[in-house]
Amino acid sequence: MSTISEALRAVTSVASSIGHSDTATITVGGSLPAAVSVKEHAADKPLPFEFPAGKHIIVGVPGAFTGTCHKQIPGYIEHFDAFKAKGIEQIAVVAVNDVFVLKAWKESLAPGGSPVRFISDDCGALTKALGLHFDATPVLGGLRSKRYVIVANGSEVETLAVEQVPSQLTVTDAKTILAQLG
């Protein structure tokens, strides 16, 4: 691929061809998977991705530093206080990338720091458990996460939004999710 735009079009094509939004196993009213290991602070220290009491948001993205993801996540960082005012206790960005990439991405998006968590699902365990994965091998080298947002209360899923086309932000951008919180 000679440009990032061509790569994103290829991901869109691959994801659309496999039914990008039709295979989620997680459902509204269902429970988030328990005891799935992810990484946040160190590559050699997996920890269970726990779902605290209260409301929280999980934002799944196909890949750190990719064009649409790099446009999507700043809204969650910028509007974190507005989410808190609507009762959201935590926002976690999840990507099937290694912990080093996620740390670098967070630093590039929020050099002064941010309470938004960046979670490495490097083996895709959480993404697979949610049923929100697709094969992006031709462009991104392997399994990746669909672009989604889950609003949960504890481990119970209250809302689920999945983009039909992963290179677009129609239902998973921060302003849309914030407006839905009422």
UniProtKB/TrEMBL annotation:
<dbReference type="Pfam" id="PF08534">
    <property type="entry name" value="Redoxin"/>
</dbReference>
<keyword id="KW-0575">Peroxidase</keyword>
<dbReference type="GO" id="GO:0005739">
    <property type="term" value="C:mitochondrion"/>
</dbReference>
<keyword id="KW-0676">Redox-active center</keyword>
<dbReference type="InterPro" id="IPR013740">
    <property type="entry name" value="Redoxin"/>
</dbReference>
<dbReference type="InterPro" id="IPR037944">
    <property type="entry name" value="PRX5-like"/>
</dbReference>
<dbReference type="GO" id="GO:0042744">
    <property type="term" value="P:hydrogen peroxide catabolic process"/>
</dbReference>
<dbReference type="GO" id="GO:0034599">
    <property type="term" value="P:cellular response to oxidative stress"/>
</dbReference>
<dbReference type="GO" id="GO:0008379">
    <property type="term" value="F:thioredoxin peroxidase activity"/>
</dbReference>
<dbReference type="GO" id="GO:0045454">
    <property type="term" value="P:cell redox homeostasis"/>
</dbReference>
<protein>
    <submittedName>
        <fullName>Redoxin</fullName>
    </submittedName>
</protein>
<dbReference type="InterPro" id="IPR036249">
    <property type="entry name" value="Thioredoxin-like_sf"/>
</dbReference>
<feature type="active site" description="Cysteine sulfenic acid (-SOH) intermediate">
    <location>
        <position position="69"/>
    </location>
</feature>
<dbReference type="GO" id="GO:0005829">
    <property type="term" value="C:cytosol"/>
</dbReference>
<comment type="similarity">
    <text>Belongs to the peroxiredoxin family. Prx5 subfamily.</text>
</comment>
<dbReference type="GO" id="GO:0005777">
    <property type="term" value="C:peroxisome"/>
</dbReference>
<keyword id="KW-0049">Antioxidant</keyword>
<feature type="domain" description="Redoxin">
    <location>
        <begin position="46"/>
        <end position="178"/>
    </location>
</feature>
<comment type="function">
    <text>Thiol-specific peroxidase that catalyzes the reduction of hydrogen peroxide and organic hydroperoxides to water and alcohols, respectively. Plays a role in cell protection against oxidative stress by detoxifying peroxides.</text>
</comment>
<keyword id="KW-0560">Oxidoreductase</keyword>
